[in-house]
Amino acid sequence: MPVNTPQTFNVASGFKFKGGGGGPSGMRIEHRVGIQAPSDVIWDVLYDLEGWSKWNPLYPQASGQIRIGSTLTMSLALPDEEPRVIHPVVLEWVPREQLHWRLKMLGGLVSNTRYIEIEQLADESCIVSNGELFGGFLGPRVAQRMGRKVWRGFEAMSLALKQEAETRWRAGKAAPTSDA
Q: Most buried of the four, 12, 52, 104, 140, by CB within 10 Å?
C-alpha cells in the first residue's frame, strides 16, 4: 500500500492505526516513546492527576481518584480543537505498569478505551504506550475522522511525559537522558 493512502500511516514514526485482528474490536491509535527513567518515576508523574496541568498538553486539567470504577474529570485539548470536559471511568490500573479508562459518547455509539502502559526495559529505561481503542458502532468512523489530531495529541502528551519524568529522575539522581 502506498504510504500516503489516507488509511495508511507510517508505523516507523510511532503511529499505529489498526482494526480487527484478535482482541477487542475497533480502531486503535497509539504513540510510543522511550523514557530514560524508572517505571516508578513515570508512574508518579501519571498518578498525580492534579499535577497534569503542569506538564500535560493533551489533558491540561485532570482530577479524580485513580481507582477501579471511579469517574475522572478531564479537559481534553486536541490540536486545533476547542478543549472540552470529559468524564471517563477508570477500568483498570496497576502501579508502575498501566492505567486504562473508558469514555462513552453519543449514547454508547462510541465507546473508547484509553490506555497508558509502561514497559520497563532496564532499571532506568522504559517504553510508554499512549493510545486509545475506538469501539462501538461509530467508534471506527470517529477514529478515521479524528485520527491525525488524536495521534498528534498523544505524541505531544508522550513527549511532555518523557520530559517531565526524565527531569524528575535527573533531579533525584545524576542520571542519563535519551538526549545524552
A: 52
